[in-house]
User: Fold these one by one.
Assistant:
Number 1:
Amino acid sequence: MINSEEVLVLKEVRYKENDKILHALSKNKGLIQLISRGCKKNNSPLINVSQTFVHAKCELYKSKDMYVITSADLIDNFYYLRNNMDAFLYGSYILELIHYIALENMVDNKIFDMTVEILKNLSSSNENFDKLTAAYELKLVAMLGFKPDFYHCLHCSNDIKTDVILSIEEGGFYCPNCVNNGNGINVLYNEILTLRKILKIKFKDINTVENINSKVMNLIRKFLFYHIGKNNFITLKLLNNE
Ligand SMILES: [Zn+2]
């Protein structure tokens, strides 16, 4: 049976003389492996779609635990990511991150669409790659169901109106009256407002959110990494010149 499926290619692996195996996030099936036969030949109709960063609509049939591509239409390859080293590295980090997450979690079509959207924004932007990536990470936290309550104290449920303490492990904030034995990270009320705004805005409007500073970005990343159980992404080491 032939299926039509939108995919984002996360990784390409050489296979036999002219073929590739593509690790891809699909819109409806989560992580899948695609065999692209003959795609290394110059005249192959699959040559342009069998590459990392490709967003394509494919016709597929299932063969054992893989899918074979019979035809495909390129939707986007985020070409301009290749013109800017930072954009490329942030884009590569997004692929590595979502690859890991899709191995461990059900990734639905909303996460698929958001991942395509962030690559589009990284590809069309000349700046703010770090802020765009932080916004993706925070929205991902929410979509995976780990989102802290940004409006209420974890313990007494009172509205958050002042500086608070973040407990990453417990996934929420303590108000000054309920301070959690002093454990946790101090978060200013202004930073809470920034986090709330990031959750609501579209990537293209990232410039309208003030105060996305390195502390806020680090908090988001720390929170995400704790809850997905991984922090050693190779592309991040390249980004941080480690
Ligand atoms: Zn409280």
Number 2:
Amino acid sequence: MIKKIIFSLIIFALLIFGLLQLQFVQNQLADYTIRSQIYNVLVENSRMPSEDALSALICGSRSPVVASTERAETCTMIVAGNDVFIVDVGDGSVNNLRNWGVPFDQIKAVLITHLHSDHISDLADLHLMTWASKLPNEKSKLYVYGPLGIDAVTAGFELSYKLDYMYRNRHHGDKLMPLSSAGYIPKVFNEGNVLKFTDSELEIRPFSVMHSPVEPSFGLRFDYKGRSVVISGDTIPSDNVVKFASNADVLIHEAQSNYLVDLARDELERNENFLSKIMTDIKTYHTTPKDAARIAKKAEVKHLILNHLSPSPDGYVAKKFFSRGLNDIFEYWTIAEDGMMVSLPVGNAEINFSKFDR
Ligand SMILES: [Zn+2]
Ligand SMILES: [Zn+2]
């Protein structure tokens, strides 16, 4: 009986393999693949919130420490009504956004919490998507808000991509990719500023956090029609996060397991790898999951999302480890995943989670 089953499976596998060699079958599969990719771009926008809400989509959930096949570096997409903002844009995050078919034409601005590479490295790819996607009469350079020094960053990207802008303009023409809207408009923010945008009730408040030697370094609070999301940025435990996150619906706080970082350091030392020093250095400028929970409790937020995860807690056991002891401090927490969206509908107190998949 078992012999018969194995024989049938082998015949079946050979049949499938044979079919895949036929051009007709390849044509059908290619047609299906392209259709679904285009569908992603044109139709999947329907996964965006249909009701009036303030939402946050995690487009990257890891720190640069230890690679992960499941996660891009830090990125959060904030949606307020029809307006879209991208907060930090680390390695792999734009690939996520493209795969999910998010509406690049609705992006009003990028906000950068601080000028570490894992928060800015995909800026050029994001620029390409907004440059190409916006309608001809809505095209403009990409607004990038950030701390002092953001203008040097955008000027550097413009210099590096000057030839690329020219090639794409020559190839695709002035209507699709005009040189007049290639590049960035940098805007420096500070604590005390309230950022507002035309035709939007969203208010964004930057606040200082502690990520020395990175100075200045900011967190951001988003308020929209009575709902609120706070992003901590990279920081050690900070009273300013407690102050600005006070009574927020959702606090997205960075988190680092120093125990796991120590394990990584020990392993690197065993292998006499000089990168072990980094594992010692980073312990002094991040927040542990338990400290993030303490901050959430003090600030009396409704829900805590741990993000900028260091090292990446991939898999069931790693997540259990990362979240050990949290429930004793603060009950309402979630570990971020790429594609996780939290939506806060206007007019009620709901906190709804959903997932963007590829
Ligand atoms: Zn970072
Ligand atoms: Zn940082």
